[in-house]
Amino acid sequence: MTDANSGGGALEGIKVVEMGQLIAGPFCGQLLGDMGAEVVKIEPPETGDQMRHWGQGEKPSWWRVIARNKYSVAVDLRSPEGQALARDLIAEADILIENFRPGTLEKWNLDPAELRRANSGLIVVRVSGYGQTGPYSARAGFGGIGEAMGGWRGIVGYPDLPPARMGVSIGDTLAATYGCLGALAALHHRTQTGEGQIIDSALYEAVLQVMESTVSDYSVSGAKRKRTGSTLPGIAPSNVYPCRDGDYLIGANQDGVFARLAEAMGRPGLAHDPRYATHRARGAHQEELDALIADWTRTLTIAELEARLLDASVPAGRVYDAEDMLNDPHFAARGALVTVDDPELGAVTMQGVFPKLSATPGSVRRPAPLAVGQDTGEILRRWLGREE
Hints:
The strands form three sheets. Strands 3-2-1-4-5-6 form a six-stranded parallel β-sheet, with helices on both faces. The protein contains 16 helices and eleven strands. By secondary structure, it is of the alpha/beta class. The longest helix has 24 residues, at about 170-195.
């Protein structure tokens, strides 16, 4: 495996039991594992995590990303024997992650309150659609539902079309990231008190947290955000503009930056035109300004436009796909992509570990487990001192 990072990571020595399925719980486990924690993933013996089959292309590879740095242990959590084994493993853990419907752990005799009585330092990350309390808590919750309730779906897309999705499972990954953030804060608290705690991360609240001033704008002035396609109302110019051979993103909504853009366009007078001279004026004339810029960009190739904007120090960039990322020298120089040797798929290139820590960088230390339960024996020996 090739990785620009090395070393055990900031969370080396931290033991994590992951009981989640699909995206939210497992992505939280991926983040902790990337930072050095030892993550033991409990999977149903017969089927494993359904994420093993997700992804696109002839050979889906999403599992290789979300299950990296993890050990697979096969446990039937619906059986008394499996529940007893899970309790033994959790008694040795620092963090437990789960993203089942609220009440499921309790039904399986794995009530977090009971688990914490046996292991007072245990931190339990619970990711769910609506949270562990409240009138909706028992409802089944998927990422898309959280995105809709949290306000994201309602503002994505064009005003004359139904709400669109992001293109990735942003609700799940946001809730997982906040779950990870909570776990790290709880680890700090534990170093001071010796006590763990329970982290309640709801999908809709994770989405709500990144909705900027959506609620406050309405509470103050009754203003509701609407779907506006590729633009943000009042922020101009900031859009994707057509070139002769594709599209290019330009963000020049600050006064000084807009002046540099106008100079690059060969029209320095635009920066002094009352219609465009200030932030508010540009916002009020957004459509006509976008049309004016688009008329200019259509005369250039992406390479020609990029050269002019780089020379003028105007924030701008190409709209990348996976092929562009693989061929970009900046991605390579920073190790933004890493290549992991997979026993079944061969070399698999994927996103690296972020953010980058200067003293204790994370890394991809081991590939995703190929077989369900392949590490059961090793974990039982190392964690519990017993044979499988």
